[in-house]
Amino acid sequence: MTSRGSGSTEWSSYAKLVDVNSGQRIARVVLDTRLPQLDRLFDYRIAEGQEVEPGVRVKVPLRSATRTSGAFVLEVVEETEHTGTLAEISEVISSAPVMPRRLFDLARDVSDRCAGSASDVLRLAIPQRYVRVEKAWIASLSEGVGADAEAVGSPQVDGFDADTWEKLLVVDSRFSLTTAHGVVPSASGPDLPRSTQPVVALAAHALSNGKSTIIVVPDWRDITYYQQALAEIIPEANLVVLHTQQPAGERYLNYLRTLEDKPQVVLGSRHAIYAPVSHLGALVIVEDGDEAHREPLSPYPHSRDVAIVRAQRDKAAVIFASVTPSLPVRRWIDRGYVQSVGPKGTYRARVIPTALTSLGDGGAQPARLPSVAIQGAQDALKSGPVLVQVFRAGYSSGLACASCKEPGGCRECQGPLRLVATGSPPQCAWCGVAQGSWKCFECGGLKLVPRGQGIGKTVADIGRSFPTTTIIRSDGEHPRSHVGRESALVVATRGAEPLADGGYSAALLLDGPAMLSRETLSTLEDTLREWEHAISLVRSEGTVFLTDVEGAPAMVMAAGNHDHLLRQELAQRESLRLPPSVRIASLTGPAADVSRVAQAVLGVSGEADALGPVAIASGVVRTVLRFPYAGGNAVTEELRSWRNKMASGPKRGSSERVKIVIDNPHSLDTLTSE
DNA sequence: AGCACGCCGACT
DNA sequence: GTCGGCGTGCTC
Length: 674
Fold this sequence. Notes:
The chain is an alpha/beta fold. Helices cover 30% and strands 23% of the residues. The chain contains 19 helices and 30 strands.
């Protein structure tokens, strides 16, 4: 607006603009809506007397005065790009700044990566409002916050040097922190996993340096362990717990507390990764290989990816803490993107694969409960509880060669085979190619049979083998978080193993073949992790019997180091162009729409290709697009624009016509519904 | 999502 | 002539 000599008309319109707009306050807002086509900023006039600050929740008119939408104020400005009259904010809902700018920026980054809307991510981040709690919190703020943080102790952690925590907290660093096995006594309650120690020490160190830490764990049992461990060291005023199981009011209050401008330690499940704490020093993801870190709601982000994105924004360190690194983290370590630290000593129990030990018996088929394992368990029961890990039913076990029992693989892409209908030829679950005349790669066999067996017999078998022993059950429906030191057989489905005070004296890992024959891309890494987790609950002088497992998995479990096998797996993924060596996007919906979007993406990226389409249900197909990490933004941006286009285009349905999921390897496991 | 605008067939 | 079908597009 500096040009001189403009005509009088222009000048007068400029003057008018100044008159009307000068000093006018305009709110730039993010609409709280599920509609992808509204995923941009909107400007509204702030009326006289409305107290609007960045971050507050408001109500705004949309399209007509009667229809309104919730919204969050991003910023207050004096000018607008919008040509046309601005509507006025209908109502300022509260003065709590629940969406600070840094949270919106994070939501924008995450949604861009996932081809989703910022408001979808904000919905994950900001808990449901609880009016009474909010009023109380606002009132407590005006009273003035309490004293400065008390001194924070720095606990000694077995196996780690005292300078480890300083090293892990270096700005912009990423570490894989291998945590030790075993359980340790706690001053404040039942025993705790030893793996909590380094994480607590790290958070304490960060806090004593005025830095915040966010610790994201897979499930509520981990919350209870970490909460107990953290409470011993971290002052109450600086510790915030956020998870979906807690009552709505408590969760909202704790969310509001993370808005306060002071260093804090936030512990929570996957949504806690967005907690808008200030002074962020470190993001800790515990057991990032656990499926619970995948958000089941749109846009389906994974804690691991959000952590990387957020760390870049907040200049924070990232720590992946796990008993054994996940496959993506293993890949990052090998590529030098992530550094690795671990404890000096080992507390791992001895692992005996019983199939290997029975090889000398003239190749006899190992029994379901080999005698060496039964004997070992009976001995171990004299000194404490014994864990029996069993597999949970519900997974399709796929097809194997009838003569050599090797899993059947697609002749085109080596994907898993499945039977679509009896009588029709088996189909590849990844690329959909029908295997009309299948031939085994290993032995040339021509016949496929279903693999695996159920678990129904397991508990009955155990009862017969140990008639006088107390049996405690823990499964997904009735999980137990702790058992005592008393002699008992604790039968638990994988993932639901209780912690035993003092550690288990032994463990039997059953159903290995069934676990290893799950028809998913992540079967090997999942199985190794689940076994390793069970082993971590056994005291270091105890014994673990891995039954009925042979070959490479048995050997790496006995050796206690998965690196070799995971690297092999990674090399295979590399040559087959499967995640995590490439990025993927799955498109699910009507064939015509899926194909349109897929073609558009292939046009944008020359390096992308498509697997499928595979029929999933009647009229519904899935295509999985593969694309490299470099230039991946162009692909996700194209997908995002198509998502928006199709939401408002012709023939739109009641819901999204094409569901887009980014970087979920389970997209390739067609039988697993998303 | 909703709601308005717009461009063709059947009607008093 | 005009009432209303729903296909198409937009929401500060």
